[in-house]
Specification:
elongated, 752 residues, 21 helices, alpha+beta
């Protein structure tokens, strides 16, 4: 990486920019002194040109001469001296001293710092995504020195207001410093505080791209922000580099102040969070238990009674586990009164739990791949219901299409039915269409559909679109029930809460929003990302929401407070998908950088990075035990990863606990298959070596299209945690899902 050190701005740039600032807000021209003649813009420019010519700054002189067309004789220092009294400027005044004098005059305005920083912040918010994060990095030391300068000038109330108004911009990465600086109340505090002295006596290192640096310089010059120019020149050491500036570079030696921890994200991620399971409603618990006892207590013994007895035992164990790990009633989010469907769903989950396949590196899941043909590259998203009865996709032609995976007809209502006449199931069946097909279009959006999700009971479907709306569809009537408006820009993703009722949306307006199905307005707005929010998912206990963004970060939000409680940094590209393990302790994220990162939600730290994909990763899914992760990608593959296999994650407490639980299970079942440390059974080791070599060779030569559409091979180093790769035929994988029984479902659209 090549670069050069720049002490913010050299003499030429400072002189040129500040000289051009004459007559700005709070400047000399507005000082109010009736005896002082106002220096014209052309006079100042001519003085600066003379100074640049004397010093030999030919490029700067040429640039200024082109920007400001000069005419007439050159103005000398003496001409300028005649404008300002010698008592104020000094008899031997020169251009730099005149610039400093102008800056001092601007500092006489007590609101100058607040006004200039507010404009800098507004400009940064509206800048291009590729430069926004480096401009935010520059704004922090500017914020700190503006705050300290206000105290040093005795404007303590203005300093407190400044800190209260803008500190939230930096609390995530610099929380400890913000807490310390907030305690400063007087000029003496600033002079004696160790942290304040550290910032005042050392230059703050910043990495910026050349274009980003030029944009910042141009902004400060064009808006005549002399105070900020002086701060940048005096306290910042900006190093320009070729290529992109990664967020991870904040940990490198030339960033920040040497010897001082810059990225204090661990401090922010130390907030207490509750990751336990959602408590089971007492009514649902009692009804499930009563139903199973009724089935098991029948006099006629058959397979139904035996299954009910087994389910009753399974439910007793599950109830004990949920009681141990469940959230308290105070922490759980409020839910509406349960209906009969929750009881049916709980019994179905118990049946799935009994028939669940235990997965391991020696026993990988079966993958069912649904390939859609003739989509003409218009399908944007896809999903499947929990009971595998329905599949839905969103298309660029503004409609949602539903398929019945059971080949049953999807019948809506007749066009002439009267809603008031429907009072029973028989009446509803009478007004349904007499015939139907196994697929159906839902039409209502006025723009491409980018996200779809089906409720846990397969009764409702959510869709989101470029038309800035989310729509709720009834899958019983095949009609649009509610249209939710609130976002200001296209909505990229939508997700139901595990228990239904609540849902979340992610949008181009840099926010995610929480909704409930019975309100047409958002309940919470999650604001904090610096760019588009691409994806959103609920935590299994529905107390938290996870979002991934184009700003290369993932955030965990508290649903009840509406605040961010975790920030995960480390991606080098846009984050397009996230997934959370069923136990709620591990999160995985992936996107354009083709890397799957696995995170510990409790500590906020990265457990491991999984490499192997050669295209953007579109979807992630955990197995029910949380030890295996599936990923679907644009490289037309589905890959399985062993979360506990990587050496970087083997010592993690969550992995160690899971390994201990598996060891205890093995001790209780001595007849279980012996699995070695690599996760392969002893009897399979001998015959698998040749297959592993062949897989390694094939995986290393993954295909990828170039700009002309020609297939070319791309070699990528693969993580040790990669267990298996399933390849498709020209079918990017849009969605992967793990069912309650650990069956893997993948969906993709065939492309030519």
């Amino acid at each position: 990486m090549s670069g050069r050190n720049t002490d913010a701005f050299d003499d030429a740039s400072v002189a040129g920019s500040n000289g051009a600032a004459n007559g700005g807000p709070g400047g000399i021209g507005n000082s109010g002194n009736g005896n002082r003649r106002q220096a014209s813009q052309k006079q100042v420019e001519k003085i600066v040109l003379q100074y640049l010519k004397t010093k030999g700054y030919r490029n700067a002189e040429k640039a200024l001469r082109e920007d400001a067309i000069m005419d007439g004789a050159e103005t000398t220092i003496g001409d300028l001296a005649s404008v300002f009294p010698a008592s104020e400027m000094g008899s031997d005044a020169n251009v730099p001293e005149w610039v400093l004098f102008y800056s001092e005059a601007e500092q006489g305005n007590p609101d100058a710092y607040s006004q200039s920083y507010r404009e800098l912040r507004r400009w940064t918010d509206s800048s291009l995504d590729v430069y926004r994060h480096e401009l935010y990095a520059v704004s922090f030391p500017i914020f700190v020195h503006a705050y300290l300068d206000l105290h040093m000038r005795g404007l303590h109330e203005k300093a407190a207001e400044f800190m209260e108004q803008y500190s939230r911009d930096h609390v995530v990465h610099h929380g400890k410093d913000i807490e310390t600086l907030t305690t400063l109340k007087t000029k003496a505090h600033v002079e004696e505080n160790a942290l304040a002295k550290l910032y005042r006596e050392n230059k703050y290192g910043i990495r910026m791209t050349r274009v980003g640096f030029e944009l910042l310089l141009s902004f400060l010059q064009d808006h005549h922000f002399t105070l900020l120019m002086r701060t940048v020149n005096q306290y910042l050491n900006i190093r320009t580099i070729d290529g992109a500036v990664q967020i991870a570079s904040e940990s490198e030696a030339d960033v920040g102040i040497t010897g001082h921890t810059q990225n204090q994200l661990d401090h922010f991620n130390s907030q207490d969070i509750a990751l336990g399971s959602a408590p089971l409603d007492p009514f649902v618990r009692d009804e499930v238990e009563r139903t199973l006892q009724s089935e098991a207590g029948r006099h006629i013994k058959d397979s139904t009674t035996e299954e009910a007895s087994a389910l009753l035992d399974t439910f007793a164990r599950a109830k004990q586990d949920s009681t141990t790990n469940a959230l308290s009633a105070r922490d759980a989010i409020p839910m509406p009164p349960p209906r009969g469907v929750e009881i049916e769903q709980q019994i179905a989950n118990l049946k799935a739990l009994r028939k669940r396949v235990a997965l391991s590196p020696a026993a990988l899941p079966s993958v069912c791949m649904y390939t859609l043909h003739n989509t003409d590259n218009t399908m944007n998203c896809a999903t499947v219901s929990e009971d595998l009865s329905l599949m839905a996709g969103g298309f660029s032609e503004s409609y949602v299409k539903i398929w019945s995976l059971k080949r049953e007809p999807l019948r809506g209502f007749q066009s002439n039915f009267v809603p008031n006449s429907v009072n029973s199931e028989e009446d509803m069946e009478a007004v349904r269409e007499k015939t139907g097909e196994d697929s159906r279009k839902l039409i209502g959006h006025s723009g491409p559909v980018f996200g779809v999700d089906i409720s846990f009971d397969s009764k409702y479907l959510l869709s989101c679109s470029e038309d800035k709306t989310a729509r709720l569809w009834s899958l019983d009537t095949m009609t649009n029930v509610v249209c939710y408006r609130g976002h200001n820009y296209p909505i990229w993703d939508v997700s139901f809460a595990p228990q239904g009722f609540y849902f979340a949306t992610a949008s181009h307006d840099r926010t995610a929003r929480l909704w409930s199905c019975d309100h047409i307005y958002a309940l919470r707005i999650f604001a904090g990302h610096l760019s588009d929010v691409n994806c959103v998912r609920f935590h299994p206990n529905a107390k938290y929401v996870v979002t991934g963004s184009c700003d290369k970060t993932v955030r965990l939000w508290d649903v009840q407070r509406g605040s961010c409680v975790r920030v995960f940094t480390g991606h080098t590209g846009s984050v397009d998908t996230v997934a959370i393990s069923p136990d709620g302790r591990i999160m995985a994220s992936a996107g354009e950088d083709q890397i799957v990162n696995v995170w510990d939600l409790g500590s906020g730290r990265r457990m491991e990075s999984l490499t192997g994909h050669t295209g953007s990763v579109y979807s992630l899914a955990f197995s029910q035990e949380g030890t295996l992760l599936l990923s679907g990608s644009a490289d037309e593959t589905v890959r399985a990863w062993d979360i506990k296999r990587s050496s970087t994650a083997s010592d993690h407490p969550i992995i160690a606990q899971r390994q201990s639980e598996q060891d205890q299970s093995k001790a209780a079942d001595p007849d279980a298959m012996d699995v070695d440390s690599d996760g392969k059974s002893a009897e399979n080791n001998a015959g698998s070596s040749e297959k592993d070599k062949a897989d390694a060779a094939n995986n290393g030569d993954s295909k990828k299209r170039d700009a002309a559409g020609i297939w070319k091979s791309k070699r990528v180093a693969e993580s040790d945690a990669l267990l298996k790769t399933w390849r498709t035929k020209s079918t990017p994988v849009y969605n992967v899902t793990m069912t309650k029984r650990n069956l893997a479902i993948a969906i993709g659209a065939f492309t030519l």
